[in-house]
Amino acid sequence: MKNKHLKISALVDEALRGGRAVVALESTIITHGMPYPRNVETALAVQAAITERGAVPATTAVLGGKMRVGLSDDEIDALGQAGDTAVKVSRRDLAFTIAHGTVGGTTVAATMMLAAMAGVRVFATGGIGGVHRGASTTFDVSADLQELARTEVVVVCAGPKSILDLGLTLEYLETHGVPVIGFGTDMVPAFYSRESDFHADYRIDDAAGVAAVMAVRRDLGVGGGMLVTNPIPVEYGMERSVIDAAINTAVAEASARNIIGKGTSPFLLGRIVELTGGTSLDANIQLVLNNARVAADIAIADSKGRVNPSSSGDLA
Ligand code: PSU
Ligand code: MN
């Protein structure tokens, strides 16, 4: 059924019709995650990295009363300039931004929704939202986690950022049946650093391995998404003590200033960049590029697998 609220770019539409690899990209990272103009430069570089790898990038947003999958460079620039005057759109906000015609940057949750509606199966980002530290009293659990539980899209990230409670985030994902894959690693990476104290559920070393599991999950009708955690490249990884000190300061400030709800993640991300003198922003950009390349490889492997005819099962 045609979705009148969804507009897919000609390039992305053509790729989807041809069964070619497409990678979805979010836009809250553009509007609320990075300062202008680095946000726009990064978004364009991420798209280029996907194209170079042989897949088609599909950046998502809400613009002009439509959910958009695939944006022009000018539209990405406009989102970057809008910054936090744009609405940060999660599942809750989607219908309102469409109905009101407001500009919206899509979070991981909303991007998964748009990707699934368009038929895009793989999505690259930097960090997902999760269970925030102190969630036992604040109840601050990102809608991204619930979306991973219900929407069938593979999300490639660099692991939950340690502004979150990594242990509780992993428990939540386990409860909701979302597998956490370590891509070439046994441990779940923690965004700025390659390692954490937590084991991934499964280690997979190449894109074909991820695509193979995607195919079986489809056959079984398991539903829901998977989280592929891809460590930051060695040369850009940050010392855990350095980044943790900045994060602890930012979390304490957010609490003292009573910052709550959807403002929490943007506040923490901005303060961490300031407190690390921009080093964390450089690291952030590099890990997103790295995730885009891995997502492209997974989407390509998945598109190759799609020629397999499906039947009702093997004879015993
Ligand atoms: N974490 C990051 N960078 C980001 C975000 C999270 O390291 O840009 C953004 C993503 O768009 C994510 C959203 O989906 O923040 C989560 O926000 P919340 O915790 O309010 O659900
Ligand atoms: Mn939240």
Quick gist of this model?
This protein is of the alpha/beta class and 316 residues long. The chain has helices at residues 10-17, 28-33, 38-53, 73-82, 94-100, 108-118, 135-138, 143-150, 166-175, 207-220, 240-256, 264-275, 279-305; strands at 6-8, 22-25, 56-63, 66-69, 87-89, 104-106, 122-124, 154-157, 180-183, 202-204, 226-229.
Record the SSE blueprint.
Elements: E1 6-8, H1 10-17, E2 22-25, H2 28-33, H3 38-53, E3 56-63, E4 66-69, H4 73-82, E5 87-89, H5 94-100, E6 104-106, H6 108-118, E7 122-124, H7 135-138, H8 143-150, E8 154-157, H9 166-175, E9 180-183, E10 202-204, H10 207-220, E11 226-229, H11 240-256, H12 264-275, H13 279-305
Parallel strand pairs: 1-4, 2-3, 2-7, 5-6, 7-8, 8-11, 9-10, 9-11
Antiparallel strand pairs: 3-4, 3-6
The protein binds pseudouridine-5'-monophosphate and manganese (II) ion.
Q: What does this protein structure show overall?
A:
The structure is a single chain. By secondary structure, the chain is α/β, with parallel strands linked by helices. 47% of the residues lie in helices and 14% in strands. It has 13 helices and 11 strands. The chain has helices at residues 10-17, 28-33, 38-53, 73-82, 94-100, 108-118, 135-138, 143-150, 166-175, 207-220, 240-256, 264-275, 279-305, and strands at 6-8, 22-25, 56-63, 66-69, 87-89, 104-106, 122-124, 154-157, 180-183, 202-204, 226-229. Strands 1, 2, 3, 4, 5, 6, 7, 8, 9, 10 and 11 form an 11-stranded mixed beta sheet that branches. Strand 3 and strand 4 form a beta hairpin. Helix 3 (38-53) runs parallel beside helix 13 (279-305) and helix 11 (240-256) packs across helix 12. Bound molecules: pseudouridine-5'-monophosphate (PSU) and manganese (II) ion.
